Amino acid sequence: MPLSERPYEKCEEFGVQSLSDAELLAVIIKTGSKGERAVELASRVLNAPETDSGLYGLNHFTMDELMQIKGIGKVKAIQLLLLQKLQKEFARMAVQSQEFELIRQNHICRRF
Questions:
Q1: What SS3 class is residue 72?
Q2: 69 has pLDDT over 80
């Protein structure tokens, strides 16, 4: 298989920024299903018609909905739900950081 089709090697050679969303997700789910590589499975998940496409769309799946996608069993569904949780936590932390910065700027402005 060429380097361009192997996410781990592609990441090592060209950096994480070179990976597509499907390749990033493929690294997390690790394996595909019978007759389908992990990248292909990840691409199907990201483009599932039940929700918004892309990584953002992962936030809207339940475990049952994920498991209805061919090739996604309990373990992969849990991996994807954990990714959901990480996305939400990163977003929450970013919002809190921005709120803190606004509070700090208001405090500085009041002092002058």
A1: coil
A2: yes
DSSP 69: S
At residue 77, φ and ψ (nearest 5 deg) are: -60, -45
> Which of 63-67, 87-91, 96-100 is predicted with the least confidence, judged by mean pLDDT?
96-100
Helix (H, G, I), strand (E, B) or coil at 15: coil
Q: Contact, 64 vs 50, CB < 8 A?
A: no
Provide the pLDDT for residue 71: 95
Residues 86-101: b if buried by 16+ CB within 10 A, e if exposed: eeeeeeeeeeeeeeee
Q: Is the distance from CB of 77 to CB of 67 less than 8 angstroms?
A: yes
Position 57 scores a pLDDT of: 85
Angle of CA points 28, 29, 34, to nearest 5°: 155
Helix or strand holding residue 103 (H, E): helix 74-111
